[in-house]
Design goal:
The protein is α/β, with parallel strands linked by helices. The protein has eight helices and twelve strands. Bound molecules: calcium ion.
C-alpha cells in the first residue's frame, strides 16, 4: 500500500508520515501543490492525503485536475476548522472523505483504512468489505466463495452499506438513498429489508457484518 501525503506544514507532514510508516505503508510526501500533483499523476497510489491550503497550487484545484484526467485514486482532504464551504467544495470536486485539523491520529488512520478498502476493488467495479463482495455486473454477492442471490431492493441496500462501511446509517438516510423517497420512517419496511439481507449475508456465517445501532439505524462493520 502506497500513500501520497501533500501537506506543506512540515510538522504535520512528518507526524502523518511516521505514523503511516509505522503501520507498514509506503509514504511519499510533497510539500507544495505542484509537486504533489506531479507525484499523483505519475504514481499509482492507493490513497492521497491532500491538504487544501498549499503553496503554488491548492488542494481543490489539484483534485479537480486529477478527476478531470480520470485519476480515481481515493482522496482524503485535510481542512481547517470551520471551513464548511471548503469541505463542500472538496466533496463536490471528487474528494472521498475529509478530516478537520487538528485531528486524532486514530481517526485519521481509520479513515485511511476505509479508503484503502474502498480503493482495492477499483477497476472491476466490485464493492468489497471484509470477506463480502458485491458484483454490480452479476448483481450477486459473495461471501467466503459462497454466492448469494439478491432481490433488486436487497442489492440496492447492500450496495449502500458497502459504499458506506463503518458508518452509522440512519433509517432516514437509508430510505432516502435506497428508496429514493422519504416514506414514513416509522414504518418498519427498512427493518424488514435489513432482516432479509441479514438472513442472506450474515445468518450462515460466524462473523456478522450488519449490526443494529439501537434507536438509530444500522452499520456495516466487521467486529
Ligand atoms: Ca497547508
Amino acid at each position: 500500500m502506497r500513500i501520497l501525503v501533500v501537506e506543506d506544514e512540515k510538522k504535520v507532514a512528518s507526524f502523518i508520515r511516521k505514523g503511516l510508516q509505522s503501520e507498514g505503508y509506503a509514504v511519499d510526501v510533497a510539500y507544495d501543490g505542484v509537486e504533489g500533483e506531479f507525484l499523483a499523476q505519475n504514481n499509482d497510489y492507493d490513497v492521497i492525503v491532500l491538504d487544501i491550503m498549499l503553496p503554488r497550487k491548492n488542494g481543490i484545484d489539484i483534485l479537480k485536475d486529477l478527476r478531470e484526467k480520470d485519476i480515481r485514486i481515493p482522496v482524503l482532504i485535510l481542512t481547517a476548522k470551520g471551513a464548511t464551504e471548503e469541505k463542500v467544495e472538496a466533496l463536490d470536486a471528487g474528494a472521498d472523505d475529509y478530516l478537520t485539523k487538528p485531528f486524532a491520529y486514530e481517526e485519521f488512520l481509520a479513515r485511511v483504512r476505509v479508503l484503502l478498502r474502498r480503493g482495492q476493488t477499483e477497476g472491476t467495479g466490485e464493492l468489497k468489505y471484509s470477506d463480502l463482495v458485491l458484483n454490480p455486473m452479476t448483481r450477486k454477492a459473495q461471501r467466503d466463495e459462497r454466492e448469494i442471490e439478491l432481490t433488486a431492493k436487497e442489492y440496492s441496500l447492500l450496495e449502500y452499506f458497502l459504499r458506506n462501511p463503518e458508518r452509522v446509517l440512519t433509517r432516514t438516510m437509508i430510505s432516502e438513498h435506497v428508496w429514493e423517497y422519504d416514506f414514513d420512517t416509522f414504518s418498519n419496511i427498512i427493518d424488514v429489508y435489513v432482516n432479509h439481507l441479514r438472513n442472506k449475508v450474515d445468518k450462515d456465517f460466524e462473523r456478522k457484518l450488519i449490526h443494529t445501532i439501537r434507536g438509530v439505524g444500522y452499520i456495516l462493520k466487521d467486529e
